[in-house]
Design a protein that fits this description.
Strand content: under 5%
Shape: rod-shaped
Order of helices and strands: HHH
Low-confidence stretches: none
Radius of gyration: 18 Å
Helix content: over 70%
Structural class: mainly alpha
Length: about 55
């Protein structure tokens, strides 16, 4: 697990500083937050399924 986190470590501030234009900055922001939003969505979906399963029993 530590190995993967070292590979995926990205310096967003450095990327924004060297961005060619504003569209690139927006892409960096979306690309940085999208995985977290997806993970939160999956976690909420799993929680909701679990909650509904308990209600049906």
């Amino acid at each position: 697990m530590d190995f993967l986190s070292l590979i995926q470590k990205v310096d967003i501030v450095e990327k924004v500083k060297h961005a060619p234009n504003g569209s690139y900055q927006i892409g960096i922001a979306i690309g940085s937050f999208l995985p977290f939003v997806i993970l939160v969505g999956i976690a909420y979906w799993m929680y909701n399924r679990s909650k509904n399963r308990k209600d049906n029993e």
